[in-house]
Amino acid sequence: MVGVIIPAAGSSQRMGKNKLLLPFGGKTVIERSVAPFLEMDEIGEILIVVSKSETKIPALFHHPKVRVLTQGGETRQETVYRGLQALSEECDTVLIHDGARPFIEQEEIVAVIWDAKETGAAVLGVKAKDTVKTLCDGWIQKTLDRNEIFLAQTPQGFDRKLLEEAFLKTKGRVFTDEAGMVEAFGKKVKAVFGKSSNLKLTTPEDLALAKGLLEEPKMKIGHGYDVHRLTEGRKLILGGVEIPFSLGLLGHSDADVLTHAVIDAIFGALALGDIGAFFPDTDETYRGICSLTLLEETAGIMEKEGYVLGNLDVTVAAQAPKLRPYIEAMRENLARILKTDQKNISVKATTEEGLGVSGGKKGISATAVCLLFLKESQ
Ligand code: MG
Question: I want to staple 66 with a disulfide (CB 3.0 to 4.6 A). Which of 61, 250, 256, 329 is the partner?
Fold first, then answer.
């Protein structure tokens, strides 16, 4: 089994604040750095090692494979060592990955695992593209042969026993990466060629560059449509507002057709399916439930996906009753739950001139269009 150690106890001195918690593509830097490892079958455990005082990082991870260890050391080396001691016994191969490398891809991880298992030690990196020179007191000392230069990244993968032994035998010496330690221990390390896009975010300049490389769309548009049948003996609820009328809408929940169209528009924008996928009408939990509660859950899912509502435009088609007096209250409800200003919420009512679904007073329909913004791009 492969175990992953993510050293995340650094003080981010060069960034000025904890870079791992900076918003990045709708999540945090550390969440994105860990995400590709989560769904890989080869990986059985992911250990994130943070400092004792860190409370925010542990709150971000609720995945069965992830454990957060609050025993980070003074140096990266010490933090990795403590992680290695805490890793489950079943892990015979260990990967170390920087918490601030959010562009790592599963293909590269697999390549490192493969070579680490075969050779005992493997490090991901790229060949130098620039000419590399050594410096002394602001003067160039000499020019190195670029073809011999390999820029090490992470993950770095090792046979666990080998890494443990390297730690013990090189005790007291300082290394900037684990491959360096294993080399000093006398073991050959295999170079795995990756991509230069696997950036480590160290300075504010790196962060600005990295944001440009993100592939998440800054905006997403969604559309929702719903119809419910009018019947006797039910309440008429639209946008969370109870409207006095002789008929009400039939449905498993409170049948708030307007709110259902809004929920579908949000799920549509996120391409997550429809309302039925999240709140099935076969589930007794949702019998008679207030649809605003479902909208609140939907808003939570939207937030988790990294998006916030830009604006929303809803049209309800009903022959009767007159909805105008209730529109403001509906806008207020939707704005409150979607955590936005009321000016971003439009609710319009129309009739279908005696035609269509609503014209014969058999039912009420609603359509909704929404625009979502990626959190930090607003
Ligand atoms: Mg519905």
Answer: 61
